[in-house]
Amino acid sequence: MVTPAPAELLANRLGRRPDVIARAPGRVNLIGEHTDYEGGLALPIAIDRETRVALARREDGRARAVSCQESGEVAFNPATPRRRGDWSDYVQGVVAALAERGIPVGGFDLAIASDVPPGAGLSSSAALQLAVATALDAAFGGGLDRVALARVAHAAERGFVGIACGILDPFASALGRSGHALRLDCASEATQYVSLPGARFRLLVAHSGVRRSLAENAYAERVAECRAARRAAATALGRPVARLRALAPGDLPELEAALEPGLLRRLRHVVTENARVDAMCGALRSGDLEAAGVVLREGQRSLRDDFEVSTAELDALCELGDAAAGVFGSRLTGAGFGGCTIHLVAPERAAAVAEVLAEGFALRFARRPPVWSVAAAEGAGVLPLPPTL
Ligand code: GLA
């Protein structure tokens, strides 16, 4: 439940009534990590934690925004969005991306409320950008569909905020479906829904408490290493490798002999991770949670040893999870370097496992990590206006 309601926030802090209310969820990625910017596969679910925005048009062409997570208000001119290095960039970036698509945004007041924890690697920024894009599109008659809105949010993050990320987060937030995971082909943008064996598992998310936002340089370094690995692979194989997605597990023996060990590890993670996405889809479709758990554990090993984006805290949470009765498998989710782990758990064991994770982590790191149970939710959309307004 997102509190305060964004309409209340808009009324209390900016004295306005909304014309539009929109929402967009955070996400966890079940498998398919660090594959999106190499045109690979991913399998996210949108989660039942979301950002809600309430928007009122203004006639004077000015824009103001407030957020339940920030004090004060930001003001800017939507006709000339400018990067400022503060949280208004997330809103201004969406305005700029809409303008690039020929959707002029007029004046507006905006209130933002969210229960997606910021900096936890659950895509709080994509949720914010998608919610803002959905509201602005509805308020200013853009008529964009969800895929177009996801592209707008992606353009805002890459082009305006300046993070070299792939399409995973905005597509998950835009296209999520209740009870389903989303198989996303990041080269073609093709999507398929994979039904989750809902009643037979719970998905726990544990927050390592290490903020993901501190790790932007490390993320950019991995993106660059993948690019270098791609070039080295093309030389070794004597054929073009446009994206690492073009490589199959069968190419690995030849590359193992030819590539420098560091680059080989990065490449091997991406190639095997793409294969794990389809292994996970198969396991979910046949309801084989044991097999799904094996894929999670293999994914974690690969992120830890080959891609080297895990941390002591994330490793500890996964080890605690995997040693607990009723856990099918665990791994870090998102970019790594901090953020959260996910744990696929038998429903009747969920509460006990949450306690095992929190207790075991506290013994080692002297603080209890938040542990949430999440469910697959619908992607971004417009909500009805509250009847009292
Ligand atoms: C972050 C990025 C995504 C993706 C993941 C890793 O969440 O924003 O584009 O690269 O990391 O899978």
Give the helices and strands as they follow along the chain.
Answer: HEEEEEHEHHHEEEHHHHHEEHEE
Bound molecules: alpha-D-galactopyranose
Give the biggest beta sheet.
Answer: 6 strands, mixed
**Content of β-strand:** 15-25%
What do you see in this structure?
With 389 residues, the chain is α+β, with helices and mostly antiparallel strands. The protein has 11 helices and 13 strands. The chain has a 6-stranded mixed beta sheet with strand order 5-4-6-3-1-13. Strands 10-11-9-12 form a 4-stranded antiparallel beta sheet. Alpha-D-galactopyranose (GLA) binds next to helix 5. The site of alpha-D-galactopyranose has 11 residues, from helix 5.
List keywords for this structure.
single chain, 389 residues, alpha+beta, Ribosomal Protein S5, domain 2, 6-stranded mixed sheet, 4-stranded antiparallel sheet, 42% helix, binds alpha-D-galactopyranose
Brief rundown of the structure:
The chain has 389 residues and is of the alpha+beta class. It is built from eleven helices and 13 strands. It has a domain of 190 residues: Ribosomal Protein S5, domain 2 (2-Layer Sandwich).
How is the topology of this model organized?
Elements: H1 6-14, E1 20-29, E2 41-42, E3 44-58, E4 63-67, E5 74-76, H2 88-100, E6 107-114, H3 124-139, H4 146-161, H5 168-175, E7 180-185, E8 191-195, E9 202-207, H6 216-237, H7 252-258, H8 261-285, H9 289-306, H10 312-323, E10 327-333, E11 340-345, H11 350-365, E12 371-374, E13 381-383
Parallel strand pairs: 4-6
Antiparallel strand pairs: 1-3, 1-13, 2-7, 3-6, 4-5, 7-8, 9-11, 9-12, 10-11
Helix pairs in contact: 2-3, 2-4, 3-4, 3-5, 4-5, 6-8, 8-9, 10-11
